[in-house]
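Long-time lurker, finally posting.

We've been working with DUF5619 domain-containing protein (Desulfosarcina ovata subsp. ovata) and I want a structural starting point before designing mutants. I don't trust myself to interpret raw outputs, so I'm hoping someone here can both generate the structure tokens and explain anything notable. Sequence follows.
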Amino acid sequence: MAKAPLKYQLINPLKIRTDPSDLDFPQAQTLAEEKAKSLCPASRLVCWYDATTGESHPKLECSATGKPGWLNYAESCNCDMTVDINDEQFIFIYLSQP
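Top reply, 14 upvotes:
Generated this for you. Predicted structure of DUF5619 domain-containing protein:
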């Protein structure tokens, strides 16, 4: 059985499209931060995923359902905002409530 695309699992995704040919992680993080702060100045980055390298934070194992560990962690922290850049090339998950 194929696992579901991340887009069906993300928490309130806000999509950003930009030129992916030269976008790196620091640039993507800046874009995500600007978007999150424009909606909620007190938002705090909790988790991220970089599909170009496969890196994520925090580094946790997938659950039995196949959901990535970093996404499970975001849900357990009650995160409520996701910035999805270039269709899951970079994903940043925020907590907007203190």
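Before you design anything, note these points.
The chain has a mean pLDDT of 86.
The beta strands are 13-16, 44-50, 55-57, 81-85, 90-95.
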